[in-house]
Structure formats: structure tokens, C-alpha cells
Amino acid sequence: MHADRLLKINVFYFVYLKVGRCVNLVALTDTTKGLKRISEGMTYGEVVTMFPMTRVVFENKGIIEKENFFYVPLSCFLDAYGVSIDELNEIVAKTEEKQAENTLNVDGEVLSDQMTFRQILKAHPRVRGIFETYGVYETGKKNWQNETLATIAVAVNSTPKKLLSNIASCIKAPFFPHGNALVLTIATLAFGLTFGLWILMGPLSAIIKTQWHLSYTANSVLIALPILMGSVMRIPMGMLTDKYGGRIVMSCLLLGSSIVAASAYFVQNYALLLVVGFFYGMCGTSFAVGIAQTTRWYPARKQGLALAIFGTGNVGTVLAALFAAKITKSWFGGDWHPTFPVYALPLFIMSFVYFFTVRNAPVPMAAKKIGDQLKVFKYGMVWILCILYVVTFGYFVTFALYLAPFYKFSFELTPVTAGYMAAIFCFIASVFRPLGGWTSDKFGAVYTLYAVYTIIGICLVVSIVFNFTGYKSIAPTTIVFAFMGFFFGVGSGAVFKLIPQFFPIKTGVVGGIVGCMGGLGGYFCPMILGAMKDAIGHDGGGFGILAAITFVCLALCFKKSIRQPVRID
Fold first, then answer.
1. pLDDT class for 68, splitting at 50, 70, 90?
2. What pLDDT, on the 0 to 100 scale, is given for residue 161?
3. What is the pTM of this model?
4. Contacts of range 411-415, beta carbons closer than 8 Å, 24 or more positions apart
5. How much is the average pLDDT of 408-415?
6. Of 257 and 288, which is predicted with more confidence?
7. Has domain 370-569 been given CATH number 1.20.1070.10?
8. What is the DSSP code string of 79-120?
9. Annotation: CATH topology of 111-172
10. Could you tell me whether strands 29-30 and 103-106 are parallel, antiparallel, or unpaired per DSSP bridges?
11. Which of 294, 233, 222, 286 is closest to 255 using CA atoms?
12. Do residues 112 and 103 make contact, with C-beta atoms less than 8 angstroms apart?
């Protein structure tokens, strides 16, 4: 066998290797291509050391290190075993090309998919939020410390190239130790402006109804159409956010809504006003866009508070309710047409501010195909979150719309005073939303929801007793509604804390679905209250239905799948 002959010259080549190794190393460089290449003068040991990807070829041919081939030049044995230099160089080229794809140069620093979890966090602690978004932590059921980025990418259904790209973007991004305060601030302001425009038709409806002699049904449709569209379209807007990022989607939404709303200045008939309301109602989708935009800037332990702060944009509804009618009467002598451009102008300006100041976070985006995004409907957890949000946000919208006529007809207040009472409720529900996020981060979202649904249920039961016994006193009634408003705000923040925990990659589309169902709850629940009042003569029956749904939500919170959130997507 060839091995016998080769053993006789091992001593010679051992000396040769030690003395003249530098000569052989010159052959590594292909002067025509500038690439590292293998030559016949190199020894087996040099090749497998410098190009470990070739080892499998030698092993498949029976050429192994224990047979003393380590110091033998390739020219002595490759032909005998049916191996060519070109074959080896081809393997090297393909392997290095593949490795280059999974390597990034970030300001002179090379990031490779062979870096471990520990190495990347030690060098760049700020990328911890990306791993948390993927569901990869420093501690837990699986120890990730020594896992390579390539292994982690496979485990989270991603690719090394995409993971490295997200890490590189995070390294290059401006440093915000707890997220991105600028993005959160601008997004919250944008959300507040859009929500003010979203309900604008409500405060102006009494004036429009009087001037155009509309029926109550026609007036109700006029009020409800923007609410309905803003709720239903949250799903596709959430999907667009997951696909293109919140920066471009929110900017386009602000710009488009402002232009459509301003066009109401030229509307002179009911049908055209319905069309305007239909299209500018899209601004109500800003919530689904904003939550996907803000949550990706924050690690899991901070997302509850961040989303709750963003949710305080609900206060825009209070500003619209308080000032829309006053502006119409004081500035324009009762003409409602110019009020729409007044509210549209800040949105127009904000669209450019948002585009030039806000950045998409360097965290993974969801699947690009619509079909892949719609697969979230198959998860029962999505529908559970929808039910939970119907009570917290849907009831908030319900009472925001229902309380003004409730106070007017139940306590014979003036429309202005009744509107102020409703505005107080909206204000409490909006400003205390961050508290829900904070308590969710500190104690857990589920434990917060235990208290939320318990107190809301008790308040509704008290309201039922007031109605069936005929008890009427404005002070206790206001206190009961104030308590409900407080826990509506806290509960909304807690529910949205759960969304990125279950669906960190598809936060936009899931948030859109949940927000849609919450908005639809705010559309249909007032109808339930009105129908039950027509049937039995008071609000007790309607409050009873709402209380039953609330206690169902309380029962759902005790499910093990809710109490122990795990990543689903």
C-alpha cells in the first residue's frame, strides 16, 4: 500500500516543514484572483489546519491523520486516492463564500454567525433587547450562553444573515438605555392627534344635525362610520406595519388623514360627508401602527410601561370633546366646516415630523406574505386577547359615547355639563393607562387583570342595583364611573403588555386584530345598552350583559396558558 512508502519519508518532511514552511505558505495566495488557495506543495497538516472544511474530503477517501499523513505533501498521495487540487479549492471557495454571507463588517468590527451569545452580549450589551424579542434570554429553561448566533437563528425560525443584520442595526442606532424615548414621545403625540380627529364627528354632530335637519338614525351613522372604519382597518394596518415598518406607515396615515379631513371644508351634503368620514376614519388605526413601532424599541421587561405611555394618546378624545364645539361657535360663528381643517393641520405637520425624526427599531419583522401573517388567526390566544380587550378598551369607548346622554337624561343636566362629566371619565381612563403598564412590568400583566376585571365587574353590579332600585344620586354614580374609567385605563395597558410576550415578531398584526375587536366592542356595546333601555326602560339590563362579559374575562385570566405566557410565533 502507498502508506508504507509514505512512512519512510515522514522524517524528511517533518524537517522540511519546520524549516521551509514559509515557502509553502506563499502558495496560499492566487495572484490572479487574490484568493487563498491550496497548492500541491502544501502538506496534509497545513491544509486541514488552515482549511478545516476540507477534512471531510480526506476522511471520505480514507486519508486520516492517524496514518501519519500530517507532514506529507499533497503531491505524494492525492492522485493515488482520487483527490484533485481543484476539488479541494472548490470546496474552500464555496465554504468561504457561504461564510462571507453570514459575516458583517460594522464600523471595522467583524460580526460572524459563529460568535456566541455570551460574546455578542459582552461586546454589545445594548443588543440584549433583540434577543429578548426573539425569546432568547440569559437564563431560563435553555442555557444560551455558549450557543452560536447561527444556532440561535435556527432556533427562532430566522436566518444568520437576518439576525446579524438586526444586531448591526442596533449597534449603529442612537443609544437609548431603556428604549427610544424620542420615538415613544413622537408616536404618542401622533396617536393623540389622530384620536382627536377620529371622534371629531361626535362633538360636532349636534351642530350638523341641527343645520342639516338630520334624523337621529342618520346622525348616528355619521358618528359611527369613522369609529367602525378605524376599528376594522386596524388589522390590515397592523400587517402593513409588520411588513414595512411603522415609520412609513404612520407618516402616510397622518398625511392622508389630514388631507381627507381638510376636504370636509368643501362638503355641502350628507352623502359626501359620509364619504369623508369613511376615509378619515382610517386615522383610528394609528393605535395598531404605534404599538408595533414602540414595542420593538423596548426589551420585554419595559414593554408594558412603554405601551401604556403610548396609550395615553387616548387623551386626544378628551381634547376633541371639550374644544370642537367651542371652536366652531367662538371662532367660526357656528359654521362647522372650518373646524375640520383646524384639526387636520396638526396632523399634516406631524406627518413630516414623524417621517424625519422616527426610526424603525432594529428588531425582527414578521413574515412578508399576507397569508403568513393571517396565520395568527389560528391561535386561540389571539381570540382570548380580543375578548379581554373588548372589556378594557371597548367599554371605554362605549361609556365615552354613552355617558353624555346618560347624564343628560338620567339627571336632567345641560348638554354642556353632561359633556364635561363624560370628559372627566375619558380623562381618567386615558391618563392612568401607564399605571397598568407599570404594574404589569412589576407584578405581571395577569395579576393586574385579576384586579381590573374584579373591580369593573363589581362597579357594573352596583350600577345594576342603582337602576333596578331606582336610586338616583349623581355623586355615587360619578364615583362608580370614575372607578371604572380608572380600571379601563389600567386594564388596556395590561392587555397590550401580553401581546409582545406571546407574539414578539407579529406584534403589529396581532395588535391590529386585538385593537380591531376592542374598537368593534365600542361600536356594538352602546347599541346593546340602547336596545335594553328601550326594552325595560332603564340601563340595568344592559349593564347586566356587560357585567357577565366582564366576569367571563376574569375566568379566562385563570387559564394556565394566560398565567404563564410563552412565545407563540
1. low
2. 76
3. 0.59
4. 411/472, 411/474, 411/477, 415/206
5. 74
6. 257
7. no
8. GGGT--HHHHHHHHHHHHHHHHHTEEEETTEEEETTSBHHHH
9. SP0561-like (1.10.3910)
10. unpaired
11. 286
12. yes
